[in-house]
Amino acid sequence: MVFKMRTYKRKTDRANISKDLIKQAASEVINGTSIRKAAKNNKIDRTTLSRYVNKLKATPDSDVFMDMQTLAKFFRINKNAY
C-alpha cells in the first residue's frame, strides 16, 4: 500500500505582505512617523512592523528583507561547502 502525501493548501492570505510595503512603512517610522500610525496607514500589523524596524535599526547595512528563495539558495550553497 502506497501512501500519497497531501499538498498543503493555504486557506487565507494572512501574513502575505510585500517587501516593498514593509520597506515603505519602515522608512516612514525611521523618518519620524509612529509605528502605530505607519502600520495603520499601510495596513500592516504593528508588531510585525516593529520587529522589522528593530532589525533595520540594529543592522542598517544588511538586507533585512531577504526573500525565501534567496535564503534557500544561500543555505544550499553553504550546505554543499561542508
Q: How would you describe this structure to a colleague?
A:
- The protein has 82 residues and is mainly α.
- It has a domain at 17-60.
- It has helices spanning 19-30, 35-42, 46-58, 68-81.
- Helix 1 packs antiparallel against helix 2 (35-42) and helix 1 crosses helix 3 (46-58).
- The model has no long low-confidence stretch (mean pLDDT 80).
Summarize, please.
By secondary structure, the protein is mainly alpha-helical.
For the biggest sheet, the summary is: none
Based on Cα principal axes, name the global outline.
flat
- Tally the helices: what do you get? 4
- Sequence of secondary-structure elements: HHHH
* pLDDT < 50 runs, ≥5 residues: none
Question: What amount of the residues lies in strands?
Answer: under 5%
Helix content: 55-70%
Distance between the termini: 38 Å
Oligomer state of the chains in this structure: single chain
Mean pLDDT: 80
C-alpha Rg (nearest Å): 17 Å
Q: What secondary-structure arrangement, pairings included, does this model have?
A:
Layout: H1 19-30, H2 35-42, H3 46-58, H4 68-81
Subcellular location: Nucleus
Domain HTH psq-type: 22-54
GO molecular function, one term: DNA binding
Which features would summarize this protein structure in a list?
single chain, 82 residues, mainly alpha, Homeodomain-like_sf, DNA binding, HTH psq-type domain-containing protein
